[in-house]
Design goal:
Helix content: 40-55%
Strand content: 15-25%
Distance between the termini: 31 Å
Order of helices and strands: EEHEEHHEEHEEHHHEHEHHHH
Number of strands: 10
Number of helices: 12
CATH topology of the largest domain: 2-enoyl-CoA Hydratase, Chain A, domain 1
Strand order of the largest sheet: 1-2-3-5-7-10
Shape: globular
Structural class: alpha/beta
CATH superfamily of the largest domain: 2-enoyl-CoA Hydratase, Chain A, domain 1
Largest sheet: 6 strands, mixed
Bound molecules: 4-(N,N-dimethylamino)cinnamoyl-COA
Length: 259
């Protein structure tokens, strides 16, 4: 991977997008690196939560690479969109939770990347937006779909039609991010949240992610069936026996084993 650094800290991994000369903009190489990073994380069963961030103080990701996109044909545009969408779906459906630590500009593809994560927290210097309509295109990496689901169609339409950027406090107010931190405290907060998640029973956490994501795509009758099946599957795990056994024996549970 030339544009992503992946570090492991116990059960938590931190992936940092590093393309400083273009404010971490997503060109084909960065998309391929993201794909490779997700494969590495999936294969490593020690990793229980992932933090995704951008290098430098200015940008999380300043969008898809405008230079690379500028000469695309209709077919090339569709292929570039598919490449991004495939990677973003892989991120969204990764078994473990992903926290986006948004450390600056998250525009266009950068906002869409953050929205493909489970949880977004940001620095007080962060800026979000979908500037595509101002560039003569539509959001192409899921922005029209995920933004509407996250902040509601009215606010999503306002952001996308006006192509106006919003600051961290407004992102918090509309529910695009869960929390805002002073820039210097962002990564510590993200890693602390990831560690808290990693201390819970991994199979249960992953079942919760699957239940929430898959349940949101179907009606409530089908959604509760998804939950029932995943709930039932937890009773085949050693971690469930340890967690409930410890409660009944009035002791702290042993560290969860992911089995
Ligand atoms: N792409 C390529 N290079 C970029 C970039 C980007 N998105 N953003 C910044 N850079 C580069 C700049 O060109 C500059 O390079 P040099 O001139 O130094 O070589 C360097 O990063 C530093 O940027 P600035 O000098 O502009 O820095 P400032 O602090 O003055 O401004 C800024 C920061 C983030 C406000 C500004 O750079 C900016 O407005 N950047 C563009 C933001 C933007 O519009 N992003 C959205 C891109 S559109 C689709 C698939 C995907 C998409 C759509 C459709 N399909 C296939 C259907 C996604 C679209 C987008 O993401």
């Amino acid at each position: 991977m030339t544009n992503i650094v992946l570090e492991k800290k116990g059960h938590v991994a931190v992936a940092t997008i590093q393309r400083p000369k273009a404010l971490n903009a997503l060109n084909s190489q960065v998309l391929e690196d993201l794909n490779e990073m997700l494969d590495q994380v999936s294969a490593d069963k020690e990793i229980r939560a992932l933090v995704l961030t951008g290098s430098g103080e200015k940008a999380f990701v300043a969008g898809a690479d405008i230079g690379e996109m500028s000469t695309l044909t209709k077919a090339g545009g569709e292929a570039f969109g598919k490449k991004g969408n495939d990677v973003f779906r892989k991120l969204e459906t990764l078994a473990i939770p992903v926290i986006a630590a948004v450390n600056g500009f998250a525009l266009g593809g950068g906002c869409e990347l953050a929205m493909s994560c489970d949880i977004r927290i940001c620095a007080d210097t962060a800026v979000f937006g979908q500037p595509e309509a101002g560039l003569g295109i539509t959001p192409g990496f899921g922005g029209t779909q995920r933004l509407a689901r996250l902040v509601g169609p009215g606010m999503a339409k306002q952001m996308i039609y006006t192509a106006r950027n919003i600051k961290a406090d407004e992102a918090l107010r509309i529910g695009l991010v869960n929390a805002v931190y002073p820039a210097a405290e962002l990564m510590a907060a993200a890693e602390k949240m990831a560690e808290t998640i990693a201390q819970n029973a991994p199979i249960a956490v992953q079942a919760c992610k699957k239940a929430i994501n898959e349940g949101l795509d179907v009606d409530m009758d089908a959604a509760v069936v998804i939950e029932e099946k995943l709930f039932g599957s937890c009773f085949e795990t050693a971690d469930q026996r340890e967690g409930m056994g410890a409660f009944l024996e009035k002791r702290k549970h042993e560290p969860y084993q992911n089995k």
